[in-house]
Amino acid sequence: MDARAFYRLTAPTEWAGPPETYSYSSMKQMAACLRQWQLGRSRYEALQRYPERPSEPADVGVLVHEILSQLFRAMAIAGYPEIGSDAFRAAVAKVDIRGTASKRIAELDQRALSNPRAAGFRIQSTAHNIYNKIAQAFRQEYMAVGRQASTLALGPARSADVGTSALSRREVLELSGILSEEEVRHPSLPLRGFIDLLVRRGGETTVLDFKTGAPQPQYREQLRLYALMWWRSTGDLPATIELRYGAHVERWPLTEAELVSAEREVEEKIWRYQEGLSAHPAAAKLGPHCSGCGVRQLCDVYWESKANGGGGKGARVDVEVVVQSVMNRGGFIGREPGGREIAVVCEEDVAAMHEPFVVGERVRIVNAQREGDGPAVQITRAAEVFRVG
Questions:
Q1: Domains of the chain, earliest start first
Q2: Is the pTM above the cut of 0.90?
Q3: d(Cα 335, Cα 337) in Å, to the nearest integer?
């Protein structure tokens, strides 16, 4: 689908139904808004799903966080060696920061080629730039880790090379003491996830995850689900779950009753989401998440609400107007659904990026910029213009 066709809004040609399996992240998005999840995964003619608009700060931020998590996991497995030691260099080499960054940059650029929302998007950051960002963030956190390494170190992993193909995952964990990046599934619920690290010490299992940024309460729920899936699929009831944010560690004990309660809760959620996603479209839920929703241009409930109003000078706003005047060099006059006239302005080069504005057509402008305190907005390069109907 070319960009011109894409920016004329149409309903999905094939609505997304309930997924075959659920993850913590997909259920989190469904809890915020089922329609958002559904619209993003429905088919639109040749597009298998609705494309997200690429953003270099967001993409690079995710990449930096991913590699930082890999680094801390590698250091934990190595026993948090001293910076500059052979063991430290070996752990860094396993992660291959520059190679991983180069590969991910190439993947992002390749994905942009088939994305009608990319508009010539290319990642400007190099693997060297990303390496420097990671090195700076990692060194500061790892120096703090080093001051308490004796309490954080997992101890050396033992060799499990004893015909592991014939062993269960639980037996491999018992022999080696550590399993990394382990996929887990619930045996009877459509639920799956990936555990950063499983640690077996003193006859007890810990489910461990590495995060960057500030601690978030919902991560405890995520780890509880991972522990549930490990327990149900192996019979090994984890004793603790643990989150590591660099040098900061959060740890909670687990009980069988707690996991059984979590299981009942997630089963009820899955049943509710399956029922909700059987509707076309699924129910929409308005809230703060709407302003960052990548499919809000498709959601009539959003545009019929007051969620797209407000904002002072310079604020990013979404507006829907019917074109009232012929486009000139400075813009055109539009009329909002409530009847108010609004000036829509844009520079010539920006106007050339969009189709001609035809009197009588209805357009939805996402990420416009509020001009002054009056009824006027500017279409900048950060904005997108969608034709309705």
A1: 3-152 (no CATH), 164-276 (3.90.320.10), 308-388 (2.40.50.140)
A2: no
A3: 7
